[in-house]
Amino acid sequence: MPKESTMTEPIWNEIDDRLKAEIAARNPPKATVARARSIADILAQEFPEADCALDYTTPWELLMATILSAQCTDVRVNMVTPELRRKYKTLRDYAEAPEGELEKDIYSTGFYNNKAKAIRETARIILEKFSGEVPREMEGLLQLRGAARKTANVVRMHVFRLPGIAVDTHYGRITQRLGLTDETDPEKIEFDTAALLPPERWTQFADAVILHGRKTCAARSPKCEECALAQLCPSAGKVVTEPTAKKSKKG
Ligand code: SF4
Known about the structure:
Layout: H1 3-6, H2 9-13, H3 17-25, H4 30-46, H5 59-68, H6 74-87, H7 91-95, H8 101-105, H9 112-129, H10 138-141, H11 149-158, H12 169-177, H13 186-194, H14 202-215
Helix pairs in contact: 4-14, 5-9, 5-11, 12-14
The chain binds iron/sulfur cluster.
């Protein structure tokens, strides 16, 4: 995607170097670019208010909620975070949470040992390396334990209102079905689809795709007959398989 034709300079400056390089290395067919933009238009009409489904009041809370959301529903995470907010007031409270205590508090989100470890270490790194502030740059966010590009993008998109695409299983499955990527690796899916749209549209598109997955294009039985994207979807009426997108180990 040529930089000059689609990106304004201030937004381009907010994008991490790796993503810029990956976009520059791709040269998607014009027909695919046009189709992606038509799909984005339809989804923007259908889900104009698409946004993050996790509840949070601070950047740290969204980062922590995103760590908790791995292999767990947003609804479940939202049931756990109010009690965490009541019990742990500061980053240091999380960093120094007694062994076993935090695990117990997040037990219902699953994988609680790994998640508690990630939360403690992430809180400690933010305190020690980032003066207690969640970083906004991709490079800084990727230094946090438990944060791969998906988590980093969630924080950048919703806390800092920067362009981003957070690839979860819904996003991977649907962009594959729509023929916008052939990849199964979440990072490659992010790069492929970022190359199809101007960055100003990434966040809205990514959030809307996830809502479309929940409402219409489910993993097991997509409702192609009532899908607003059917005319633009090469998989319409043909889906018979489970999702193929791999989940990132680090989220
Ligand atoms: S037509 Fe079917 S497979 Fe394609 S996006 Fe819609 S629901 Fe999903």
